[in-house]
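step=encode ok
step=design start
structure_in=
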């Protein structure tokens, strides 16, 4: 519906207009069905099958001396010759382009008069438009040709869009003699327009740099400008010639005049022209890639009748201008793209070692590639980089999930799309523009732009498109020449074709990087897997192969002591006892190494696990050691159920409880170790998690040695101190926690005891779910 084309600002202006002026009437007016033509020419609509007239304009009586009513239903060959009618039929057969123009001679009051006949097809009829040749004077082909040739040659010399527009308006004014000719560029398909070039007669108000509201050219007018590239209004005070009949019986509506050069003019547009002091006008469409780029608008202070040849020349020039503009803009874009590619090549050097998750670390460089104010990376529901309002992130995720991976989507008016026009984009939480590359599954990379309030000089206040004047309420008055300052809110600088091209190339670069990283990561994982297998195999084999000779050495030392002990000297006996003790120590280390290696090979069997039952099982092993050191276990009435491998969690608790027994403070009468479950935030995280704690009031650990206690075979005390040990227990705890995807840390100080805290993470994809054995 055309109603939906009205912006919120224009709707508010409509409601606020004095006397209830309804701008919707202008926006929805069927300007191709107004049922009339400009009076300097006449119209005949003919059935091409039988040549009978179906519609005629009522000024045929004035132009040809033939009243229209009797003509309807009669053969058109009563007015034009059979040869001219046949030529009009043949020249328009299968027609989809501009009208055909034929010079014809028609007898008027017994005297031959020259007419220009324009022919086109519409609504199944052959539409013939007759314009007296004497109205425009004799056509001088030489002057005409030289003027067009000179204009096209100068246009070819233009090297920039600005220069192209400047040449176009000057040459168009030379060709037509209009007092003001401007190049008018639209800001988007439904946006306002800016005057980017002009050529003026003395005394005419300059418009260069002025902006005009979008309502000046409503959507139905823009569609007609795409279909019919030239529009001439000879006199705003002209009395239109009405069509007979006004409504066709075959269609139930007036004749469609979309392709008519003589089509009458909307009363709204006539008032618009009167209010800016214009008596005659011509508009030539500027089309790029099938879209209306803008117009060459011509204004005159006196009536002006332009003949078909001159209109054709202007239309030809407009087509040449559109083509040249296309070439120039593409050349400018190519230069910009080449510069951007150089920047992209430089960016590839620092992006090559980065993964997708590391892109926000290069935010400044990536923003610079597209002239953006922010960079947003969303992967797996996690968003990094610039943090907009949650509504924006959710909307972009939905958009990304609907788009084909690899496409580029962009908007320069995100608040309008969100339906949040009332939200102030200046708050920083709602970007006005977004350019997004979807990555699949709702993931995306997006560049954002803030609202850019561009000061614009308006030829009228865009918030008040109507005002009461001497003729009553009038649309968009311009006569005062007042200039209003306004700001386009909720929009960013538009994303250019170069921005989109750079984004596509950047997507290809990132895709290549992701694939290379995935390949490298796969190779590293395979290498790591083989290394782990080798290490585990080495530890397992070494432990088994070394235990046999150690057992032999230990037995040999024992037998020597038993058989020859009384005959040996004291030093030799002491050495044999040391050998026996060291082989026992080596056997303990090998057993610990074998246990540690087994943890690396065995899979987790996660299940819903009763932590009370796990603690009971751990106490069966660690309880005697705690009792030896008079350490009392403190536990809550009940512990929760959690998702974990119960056997491995038992290993964790056994090692931590035994550790509490070993390092109990001998000076404390009440020694205790407490097991509990709390919500705690691991170091480096910003989110609290369910955490198991094992806290004792033992001797404690110096802060500078906290990290050492988890190293394999690392003990902070001598082999025989604090109950001895191999230094493997806490390394086992760390490995089991990490296998669960959890975090392990401690809080301790000398003399204040030690608290070990660990989480068990969420079930991972590579673990084997199952029941506890």
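sequence_out=
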């Amino acid at each position: 519906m055309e109603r939906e084309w009205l912006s919120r600002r224009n709707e508010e202006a409509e409601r606020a207009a004095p006397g209830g002026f309804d701008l919707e009437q202008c926006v929805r007016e069927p300007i191709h069905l107004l049922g009339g033509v400009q009076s300097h020419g006449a119209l005949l609509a003919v059935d091409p099958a039988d040549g009978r007239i179906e519609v005629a304009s009522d000024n045929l009586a004035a132009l040809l001396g033939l009243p229209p009513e009797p003509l309807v239903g009669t053969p058109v060959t009563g007015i034009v010759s059979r040869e001219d009618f046949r030529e009009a039929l043949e020249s328009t057969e299968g027609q989809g382009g501009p009208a055909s123009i034929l010079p014809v001679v028609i007898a008027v009051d017994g005297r031959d008069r020259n007419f220009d006949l324009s022919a086109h097809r519409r609504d199944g009829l052959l539409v013939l438009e007759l314009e007296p040749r004497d109205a425009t004077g004799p056509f001088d082909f030489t002057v005409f040709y030289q003027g067009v040739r000179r204009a096209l040659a100068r246009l070819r010399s233009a090297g920039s869009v600005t220069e192209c527009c400047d040449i176009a308006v000057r040459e168009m004014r030379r060709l037509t003699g209009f007092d003001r000719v401007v190049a008018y560029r639209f800001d988007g398909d439904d946006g306002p327009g800016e005057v980017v070039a002009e050529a003026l007669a003395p005394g005419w108000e300059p418009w260069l740099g002025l902006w005009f509201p979008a309502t000046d050219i409503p959507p139905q007018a823009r569609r007609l400008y795409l279909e019919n590239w030239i529009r001439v209004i000879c006199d705003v005070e002209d009395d239109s010639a009405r069509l007979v009949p006004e409504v066709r019986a075959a269609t139930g509506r007036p004749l469609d005049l979309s392709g008519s050069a003589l089509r009458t003019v909307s009363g709204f547009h006539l008032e618009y022209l009167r209010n800016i002091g214009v008596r005659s006008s011509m508009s030539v469409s500027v089309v790029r890639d099938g879209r209306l780029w803008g117009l060459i608008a011509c204004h005159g202070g006196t009536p002006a009748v332009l003949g078909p040849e001159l209109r054709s020349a202007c239309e030809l020039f407009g087509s040449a201008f559109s083509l040249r503009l296309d070439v120039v803009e593409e050349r400018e874009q190519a230069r910009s793209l080449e510069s951007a590619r150089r920047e992209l090549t430089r960016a590839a050097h620092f992006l090559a070692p980065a993964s997708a998750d590391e892109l926000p670390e290069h935010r400044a460089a990536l923003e610079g590639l597209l002239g953006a104010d922010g960079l947003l990376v969303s992967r797996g529901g996690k968003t990094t980089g610039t943090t907009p309002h949650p509504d924006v992130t959710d909307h972009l995720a939905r958009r990304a999930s609907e788009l084909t991976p690899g496409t580029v989507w962009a908007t320069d008016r995100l608040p309008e799309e969100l339906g949040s026009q009332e939200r102030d984009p200046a708050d920083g939480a709602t970007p006005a523009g977004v350019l997004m590359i979807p990555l699949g599954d709702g993931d995306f990379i997006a560049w954002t732009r803030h609202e850019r309030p561009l000061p614009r000089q308006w030829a009228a206040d865009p918030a008040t498109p109507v005002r009461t004047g001497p003729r009553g309420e009038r649309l968009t008055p311009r006569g005062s020449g007042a200039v209003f300052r306004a700001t386009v809110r909720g929009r960013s600088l538009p994303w250019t074709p170069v921005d989109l091209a750079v984004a596509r190339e950047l997507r290809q670069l990132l895709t290549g990087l992701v694939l290379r990283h995935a390949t490298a990561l796969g190779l590293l994982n395979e290498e790591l897997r083989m290394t782990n297998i080798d290490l585990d195999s080495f530890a397992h084999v070494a432990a088994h192969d070394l235990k046999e000779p150690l057992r032999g050495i230990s037995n040999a030392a024992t037998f020597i002591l038993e058989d020859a002990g009384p005959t040996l000297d004291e030093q030799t006996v002491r050495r044999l006892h040391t050998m026996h003790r060291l082989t026992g120590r080596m056997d303990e280390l090998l057993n610990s190494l074998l246990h540690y290696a087994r943890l690396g090979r065995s899979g987790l069997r996660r299940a819903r696990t009763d932590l009370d039952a796990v603690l009971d099982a751990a106490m069966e092993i660690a309880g005697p050691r705690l009792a030896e050191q008079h350490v009392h276990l403190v536990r809550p009435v009940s512990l929760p159920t959690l998702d974990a491998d119960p056997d491995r969690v038992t290993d964790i608790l056994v090692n931590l409880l035994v550790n509490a027994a070993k390092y109990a403070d001998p000076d404390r009468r009440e020694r205790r170790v407490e097991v509990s479950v709390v919500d705690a935030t691991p170091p480096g995280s910003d989110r609290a998690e369910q955490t198991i704690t094992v806290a004792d009031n033992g001797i404690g650990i110096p802060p500078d040695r906290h990290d050492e206690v988890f190293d394999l075979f690392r003990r902070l005390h001598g082999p025989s101190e604090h109950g001895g040990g191999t230094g493997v227990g806490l390394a086992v705890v760390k490995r089991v926690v990490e296998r669960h995807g959890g975090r392990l840390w401690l809080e301790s100080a000398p003399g204040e005891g030690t608290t070990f805290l660990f989480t068990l993470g969420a079930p991972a994809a590579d673990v084997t779910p199952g029941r506890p054995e």
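step=design ok
step=annotate ok -> The two ends are 69 Å apart (CA to CA).
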